[in-house]
């Protein structure tokens, strides 16, 4: 089975969208974990142990949930594609 080739303009668009989505996810992660783990008024110039542990757990959970959602959406998308293929085959009969 051959892989379809995208023209350079479409490939660039896909790459730009991927970068934009990853950048957005990173910004949301930083914002959410900072809000949750770092007090508004800094008491020390460096992170405390509790803050570091909180950030580590927050980032791990955020990435885990992001991965699970991505897999779920991918499975849903594949299921819809299969359903459309079945419908098209039935209509042709």
TrEMBL record:
InterPro entries to which the protein is assigned, alphabetical: Tim10-like, Tim10-like_dom_sf
Question: Could you tell me which Pfam families the record lists for this protein?
Answer: zf-Tim10_DDP
Entry's localization field: Mitochondrion inner membrane
SUPFAM superfamilies recorded? Tim10-like
Which residue numbers delimit the Tim10-like domain? 12-74
GO (cellular component) term, any one = mitochondrial inner membrane
Q: Which Gene3D superfamilies match?
A: Mitochondrial import inner membrane translocase subunit tim13 like domains
For bias type Basic and acidic residues, the affected ranges are: 83-93
Question: Topology versus the membrane, per the UniProt entry?
Answer: Peripheral membrane protein
Look up keyword Protein transport and say if it applies: yes
Molecular function via GO: metal ion binding
Give the principal location in a single coarse category: mitochondrion
Give the GO terms filed under biological process for this record.
protein insertion into mitochondrial inner membrane; protein transport
For this UniProt record, the keywords arranged alphabetically read as follows: Chaperone, Disulfide bond, Membrane, Metal-binding, Mitochondrion, Mitochondrion inner membrane, Protein transport, Translocation, Transport, Zinc
Renumbered to this chain, region (Disordered) spans 74-93
The entry's family comment says: Belongs to the small Tim family.
Question: What role does this protein play?
Answer: Mitochondrial intermembrane chaperone that participates in the import and insertion of some multi-pass transmembrane proteins into the mitochondrial inner membrane. Also required for the transfer of beta-barrel precursors from the TOM complex to the sorting and assembly machinery (SAM complex) of the outer membrane. Acts as a chaperone-like protein that protects the hydrophobic precursors from aggregation and guide them through the mitochondrial intermembrane space. Mitochondrial intermembrane chaperone that participates in the import and insertion of multi-pass transmembrane proteins into the mitochondrial inner membrane. May also be required for the transfer of beta-barrel precursors from the TOM complex to the sorting and assembly machinery (SAM complex) of the outer membrane. Acts as a chaperone-like protein that protects the hydrophobic precursors from aggregation and guide them through the mitochondrial intermembrane space.
What does the domain comment read?
Answer: The twin CX3C motif contains 4 conserved Cys residues that form 2 disulfide bonds in the mitochondrial intermembrane space.
Subunit annotation: Heterohexamer.
UniProt protein name: Mitochondrial import inner membrane translocase subunit
